[in-house]
Amino acid sequence: MSRNIYQELWDLDIQPENNGCTVTSRGPDGEWINPDADIKLDEQKELSSRGGDDAPNPLIAEFNAEKLNGKTYLALKALMNNYVFNARQSEDHLGDNSVEDAEIETFLDEILNTAVMKMAFDYIKDDLGESVEAMEFRAVTKRLWFDIYTNYYNNNPVPFSSGFEHIVVGESKSNPSDRGIGGYHSWLKYLYDQESGRVNFNGYNYDNKLGDSSPQGASVPHVATISMTYEPLDMDGQPMGRKRKDMGGFFVGPSPECQIAMPVVAYYESINGQFFVGSGTTAREQTEKKVEIHDAVYHLVLYLETREDQTRGDRLRSFFPKFLRLKDGFSSVTDPDNIQGDIAIVSMLANPIGSEEGKEWVEIENRTEEIINLDGYQFIDHKNRPEPLSMDIEPGKRLRIMVSRSTPDSMQLTNSGGTVSIIDSTGSLISKVTYPKSSNGELLYFS
User: Fold this and answer.
1) Are 43 and 61 in contact (CB under 8 A)?
2) In whole angstroms, how far apart are CA 19 and each of 36, 66, 137, 168?
3) Block means of pLDDT (10 residues each) for the chain, length 447 residues?
4) Alpha-carbon distance 49 to 316, whole Å?
5) Going by fewer Cβ within 10 Å, which terminus of the chain is more open, N or C?
6) Do residues 143 and 132 lie in contact, with contact meaning Cβ atoms separated by under 8 Å?
7) Which CATH class is domain 330-446?
8) Domain limits of the chain?
9) What are the strands, taking DSSP E only, across 175-287?
């Protein structure tokens, strides 16, 4: 079985002696699952309409500022002001090019001395069989990320392109009048812009089906696929007007060296025929690779420059994750007969590992803008056995309710599947979901 180098790089990155950040999201009770994590990611609400803003709070609720003082973080941040947002303008006039060139060399010095980049280098040599030495590896990394080139995708030449500018910094679309954002696939750039008040989080958007809940991606803290509004600055440091991206994604937590290493590995895999989906025979299939990282399955997307003759070049154009689904052991359930009211049933564990008593649970969400008191509400299973509810639930919040099985006539979740309903104090049906047979420890999600 081939190595999952991307997971290995991430695992190494978050070791205490290295620079990666641990990440957590909120649990069903609204509290942080891991209060000690470096990054607390708050994805809140799904984008409901184009141009809308469904998230009242910042995406990154808290972060460990000490991490940002690491050498590779500071070296990356120093590169940010070397680029202009307009994709068709040259960066040459921004300052002393010798200073900017030195900043690139300093950044390469710092990242190439890390354990993560050394693992990537060893994988490229030992597993892919590339006869590359350290100096050549440095040169290739620099070329991929920092060379300036003209991109000829679809015969539409865009001069002054570079991998770092597009992937990390972000830039305007190739049409200067377009109000969209190209690239911008770095959580660190997002954090810096959030701290300076130049970016606003509008809500998560994993499937681009607005208003059709996609809770799977939002349950994974290591990735964010979001809608955002951004205010870039022009060459004189003045605001250029607000730009918007309704669907853009990035991994959350990797150090600068890990963010650089993954696309470099992907490039070497691509030239060795090991980066593709399907049969790998079409150009589109050769731009993606399915990988498992942490709890999820992704397509990593690798775009290289397009030369004037429309062949692929050897410099980066873009790299980002495309969330596909949760890994095996997690499931999402869509049933046209499900009913989701103001108090919705969003997930459950019907078949816990080991003893089931006291371990089954159902997670609910308040989809209104008001606090709802659940006194007199009940869960009802497919045999009309009740589980009383008695608590307040805040607007937009989720609660995980443990199934008590307090009497033989109390509600039970079954391994073979069934239904769970919520009725209010008058007996009116609020929500109802049908759930399938599930394996040990399998989480079920409902839209």
Assistant:
1) no
2) 16, 10, 21, 18
3) 88 94 84 90 89 93 95 96 69 66 96 98 96 97 96 90 94 66 95 95 85 69 94 74 90 98 98 89 88 91 95 96 80 71 90 79 89 95 93 87 88 90 94 87 79
4) 32
5) N
6) no
7) mainly beta
8) 5-326, 330-446
9) 181-182, 199-204, 223-230, 243-251
